[in-house]
Amino acid sequence: VGELDIEIPWDQPHNYAVVLKKRSHLVKKGLEQRDAAIRAGAEAALVMTYLNDELYMPGVSVLSEERPDFASQIIEKIKPEEKDVIIIAGAKEYKKAKYGALAAAQTLL
Fold first, then answer.
1. For residues 53-62, b (16+ Cβ closer than 10 Å) or e, as one string?
2. Does the pLDDT of residue 6 top 90, yes or no?
3. N or C, which end of the chain has less CB nearby within 10 Å?
4. DSSP notation for 27-83
5. Residue pLDDT, tens place only, 30-88
6. DSSP state, 21?
7. Domain range spanning residue 73?
């Protein structure tokens, strides 16, 4: 997807999003993806799955219920499809956000 311009619940000036089609079954809690993003230089990472028209943080919450406005923004901007994984990495530098998101995505390939 690329650089994402929506309000994310962290204070990072650059946010980079990646969508992995039909990979939700590979995400447990998103910790492996988050850790890969941090190792690659990101300051923060969010791993979400899209199932049954709702956005989830696996093993944590139904984002569509807990933060409906935030979930709606992500769905509107990214337009995920059933069983997609959305990874958003944030960092002070664009390059680190991008590398973080891509590193997290690689764990699901």
1. eebbbbeeee
2. no
3. C
4. -SSSHHHHHHHHHTT-SEEEEEEEETTEEEETTTEEHHHHSHHHHHHHHHHH---TT
5. 999 999 999 999 999 999 999 999 999 998 999 999 999 999 999 999 999 999 999 99
6. T
7. 2-106
Strand 61-62 relative to strand 84-91, pairing: unpaired
- Kindly state the tokens that stand for 35: 């850790």
Q: How many domains is the chain built from? A: 1
Is residue 50 classed exposed, middle or buried when 0-12, 13-18 and 19+ CB atoms within 10 A define those classes?
Answer: buried
**Residue 5 three-state SS:** coil
Compute how many other C-beta atoms are within 10 angstroms of the C-beta atom of residue 89. Answer: 34
Q: 3-class DSSP state for residue 25?
A: helix
The CATH number linked to 44 is 3.30.1360.30
Strand partners, 86: 19, 48
Considering the entire predicted model, what is its pTM? 0.95
